[in-house]
């Protein structure tokens, strides 16, 4: 029998993110078996996410039914544009009304848009898969692109001073590009043209010096500096992108949703060379669960957090159950967590004077929301969950009598969360002590990071909670359940102190 008086400490940092493709025996202590509404933080630890709030207080007007989704949200200059029903509207952020800017858009699908400047004037062009592309100038005057070859386009990007259109239902494999510096000029003698690929196009995206054409089962790229030397080559004929709304430039790369999860197109030092990689194996089961059943895919990037978010929206699943994935680039590795409670129908992200604006249009309800705002989902509580692996401390055959858990966390205000200690894989017969509240008023502030009497001063402290705990088992796991309505905080790490018991 081991010495019962021997107290053994074991500490770990919270790092590695959500891992669902390993046995709990093979996981690293800092990885998470559950991580919901926490984001892996580039500065270390797992941070409870911010919420969202209304960006415009008024509902985007409906055409015929309150069930109409918001089909587009886009920041443009000092206004936000939104599409719903058959019309496009503008509003001032924080405003209480919408102004109609274009109407009569019959059969409109989800919009794509591109902000551009060909002639010294900022403009935005929108396409909806059914109507003529429409250009708005800085005064928000709308002008339709007149050429029938691009009417009904689903995708639009500007590249090499040309406008590129793709995704027509009647020409699903064709890309049409305009004359240089003229989004509404299509004379071949003036530099316009078109080309076809041998697969249905699902999205187009400019990356570095090339235009990537994503298809259902293949990926191509257009290289060259002008129409005189444009050329299309294969990137791969083995994998494609299932939805263009998942394509984003992220962490110096392109990320997209393939049939087997998230992939990247990584540029190498050799001009024209690329490599493909799958990055989401740690959370592949979530993608397997949602790829086939989702009715909407959306994504955004939060550059200052090196974070990509993808959302799986299902018409039959309510907002509070809608899932998504957070992907964070940390060094050369990707860490993941799960989102729950954000249900977009369209998104936009934009950096303006250093301010990251992340928007989504509601799948139901008609509002435009700004993410990364506040402590709730527009008044609805945000419930965060963390669960560690089952820790055996390298010896699953010895019973551990737990004495104390030291929690190292960084609050940004008062928090409301509970610590749970669970034993022996949460078997029905295992010890299940009651919750231990994490109270930011009882923290021990780390020397040099706080002011006496104010352990959470400036949100900069990393306090310690030393919690005596009960129970014993051959394996132990820690849970933290967030109360739902308080400010974000970061779980940085844990130290467990235990005495050794008998070997079984």
CATH superfamily of the domain at 7-44 and 385-503: Galactose-binding domain-like
CATH architecture of the domain at 7-44 and 385-503: Sandwich
* Strand residues, percent: over 45%
Over all CA atoms, what is the radius of gyration?
Answer: 26 Å
Oligomer: single chain
Share of residues in helices: under 10%
Given the C-alpha coordinates, what overall shape results?
Answer: elongated
Topology summary:
Elements: E1 7-13, E2 34-36, E3 38-40, E4 46-48, E5 52-54, E6 70-76, E7 79-84, E8 87-91, E9 99-102, E10 112-116, E11 123-127, E12 134-136, E13 142-144, E14 155-159, E15 162-168, E16 171-177, E17 193-196, E18 201-207, E19 210-215, E20 219-223, E21 231-236, E22 248-250, E23 253-258, E24 261-267, E25 274-278, H1 284-290, E26 296-302, E27 307-313, E28 323-330, E29 333-340, E30 344-352, E31 355-362, E32 368-371, E33 385-387, E34 398-411, E35 417-423, E36 436-438, E37 464-468, E38 472-473, E39 476-482, E40 489-503
Antiparallel strand pairs: 1-40, 2-33, 3-4, 4-40, 5-32, 6-7, 7-8, 8-9, 10-11, 11-12, 12-13, 14-15, 15-16, 16-17, 18-19, 19-20, 20-21, 22-23, 23-24, 24-25, 26-27, 27-28, 28-29, 30-31, 31-32, 33-39, 34-37, 34-38, 34-40, 35-36, 35-39
Task: Write a concise keyword list for the protein shown above.
single chain, 504 residues, mainly beta, Jelly Rolls, Neuraminidase, seven-stranded antiparallel β-sheet, five-stranded antiparallel β-sheet, elongated
């Amino acid at each position: 029998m081991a010495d019962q008086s021997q107290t053994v400490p074991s500490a770990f940092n919270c790092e590695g993110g959500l891992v669902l493709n390993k046995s709990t025996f093979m996981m690293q202590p800092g990885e998470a078996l559950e991580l919901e509404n926490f984001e892996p933080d580039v500065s270390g630890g797992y941070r409870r996410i911010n919420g969202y709030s209304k960006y415009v207080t008024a509902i985007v007007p409906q055409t015929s039914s309150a069930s109409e989704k918001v089909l587009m949200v886009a920041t443009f200059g000092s206004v936000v544009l939104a599409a719903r029903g058959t019309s496009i509207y503008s509003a001032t952020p924080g405003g209480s009304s919408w102004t109609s800017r274009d109407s009569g858009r019959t059969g409109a699908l989800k919009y794509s848009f591109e902000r551009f400047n060909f002639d010294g004037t900022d403009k935005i062009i929108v396409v909806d898969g059914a109507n003529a592309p429409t250009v708005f100038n800085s005064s928000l005057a709308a002008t339709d692109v007149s050429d029938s070859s691009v009417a009904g386009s689903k995708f639009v990007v500007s590249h090499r001073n040309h406008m590129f259109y793709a995704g027509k239902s009647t020409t699903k494999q064709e890309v049409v590009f305009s004359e240089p510096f003229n989004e509404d000029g299509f004379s071949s003698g003036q530099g316009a043209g078109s080309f076809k690929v041998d697969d249905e196009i699902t999205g187009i995206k400019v990356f570095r010096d090339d235009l990537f054409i994503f298809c259902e089962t293949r990926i191509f790229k257009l290289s060259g500096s002008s129409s005189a030397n444009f050329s299309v080559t294969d990137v791969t004929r083995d994998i494609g992108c299932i939805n263009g709304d998942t394509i984003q430039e992220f962490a110096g790369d392109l990320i997209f949703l393939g049939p087997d999860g998230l992939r990247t197109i990584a540029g190498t030092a050799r001009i024209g060379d690329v490599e493909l990689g799958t990055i989401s194996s740690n959370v592949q089961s979530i993608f397997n669960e949602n790829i086939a059943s989702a009715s909407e895919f959306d994504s955004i990037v939060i550059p200052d957090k090196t974070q990509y978010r993808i959302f799986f929206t299902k018409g039959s699943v309510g907002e509070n159950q809608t899932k998504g994935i957070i992907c964070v680039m940390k060094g050369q590795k990707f860490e993941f967590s799960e989102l729950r409670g954000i249900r977009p129908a369209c998104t936009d992200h934009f950096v303006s004077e250093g301010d990251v604006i992340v928007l989504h249009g509601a799948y139901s309800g008609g509002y435009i929301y700004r993410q990364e705002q506040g402590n709730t989902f527009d008044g609805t509580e945000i419930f965060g969950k963390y669960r560690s692996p089952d820790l055996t401390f390298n010896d699953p055959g010895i019973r551990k009598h737990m004495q104390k858990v030291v929690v190292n966390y960084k609050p940004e205000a008062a928090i409301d969360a509970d610590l749970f200690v669970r034993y022996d894989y949460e078997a029905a017969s295992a010890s299940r002590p009651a919750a231990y509240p994490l109270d930011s008023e009882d923290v021990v502030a780390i020397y040099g990071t706080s002011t006496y009497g104010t352990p959470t001063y400036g949100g900069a402290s990393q306090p310690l909670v030393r919690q005596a705990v009960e129970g014993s088992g051959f394996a132990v796991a820690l849970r933290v359940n967030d109360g739902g309505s308080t400010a974000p905080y970061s779980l940085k790490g844990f130290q467990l102190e235990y005495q050794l018991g008998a070997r079984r």
